[in-house]
Amino acid sequence: MRDWKSLIANYLQGNPLIAKYFQAEEEEEPMDSEESTESAADEAADAQNLVVPYSMQPGDGIRLQVAYQAEQALVGPDRQLIGYSVFTRNGQHQSVVEYDVVELRKALQRLGTDLFIPASLVPLCSEDGYLNIPTIFHGGPDAEATLATTVQALRNLMVALCYQQRDKVCAFTLSWNEAGRQASISVLGHVTDLRAWLGQAGNLPIVRAEFVRWLERQKRHLDGLPRTRANYPLVEKVVKPDGVLYLKRQPVHQFSPAEAAAGQARGLAMDATWQPKKVQCNTCGSDYWQCPHSTVLDAGVGTTVIGAELVGQFWNDRPA
């Protein structure tokens, strides 16, 4: 237990869930003066800290977040999307998912398997270079093999995004049951760094002791990388109470005219989130959500949006 606490404390510094997990009071540690000065300089220089607090660049490394919750008692497919966002419009709550999650499903289908996405989730499109892939739960008689295939699909997706030179930041969360609890690991980074990390990370073990050793290896690997912007993005800006790393877009209306002017002066733009009525594949003419083609994994594939409804506007520092 002492080694486990040490690993968590050293590897996930700044995680607000650590003290709660170990049923201890959260302590404030003194900040190194040099790091404090660097952090203050970063915040002063980057408008993203205000309106795009989750912005990352190639070379910023990746962020890992580990969490444990009550065991999932799910039936159905061995690999299913259980995370989602809730959007309120006209007093009505909608469970939504980002449209580009379909690219991971297509990557899995290329490997002979699938990702179950509940039909109740409404796909939304955002015109930016960010992607949230909600929690994907892995169960069944061989959950570790199911998880390994998902990791391989993520590798293939990141390689394809880099091949197309997409300037994209991605967050994804993978979960499974182990020893009476649901374990999850959430990952955040630019696709360039995610490709490099996934290339060396190997498969995720689901047995706790092996998972701890795997985390230790990842810590050694990440500690050996060149140091760029320390502690950026700030943990409290990207972590949800359940331990999931999530890129929360900031609605334009939340900011004052002065803040809006400051953001625009530094090159930030206001972009849109919208709900498509249909996205048609230009290769086969069918619904892109269901067809086998991919704008990421294939060359020369495009789409046409047929009808859309504006959902909202948000701040963006990297147009799609």
Give the topology, please.
Blueprint: H1 2-11, H2 17-21, H3 33-45, H4 48-51, E1 62-70, E2 79-81, E3 85-89, E4 92-98, H5 102-110, E5 122-126, E6 130-138, H6 143-163, E7 169-178, E8 181-190, H7 191-201, H8 208-223, H9 235-238, H10 257-265, E9 269-276, E10 279-281, E11 303-305, E12 308-316
Parallel strand pairs: 4-5, 6-7
Antiparallel strand pairs: 1-8, 2-6, 3-4, 5-9, 7-8, 9-12, 10-11
Helix pairs in contact: 5-6, 6-7
Overview of the structural elements:
- By secondary structure, the protein is α+β, with helices and mostly antiparallel strands.
- It has one domain (2-28, 52-316).
- The protein is built from ten helices and twelve strands.
- It has helices at 2-11, 17-21, 33-45, 48-51, 102-110, 143-163, 191-201, 208-223, 235-238, 257-265; strands at residues 62-70, 79-81, 85-89, 92-98, 122-126, 130-138, 169-178, 181-190, 269-276, 279-281, 303-305, 308-316.
- It is globular and about 50 Å long.
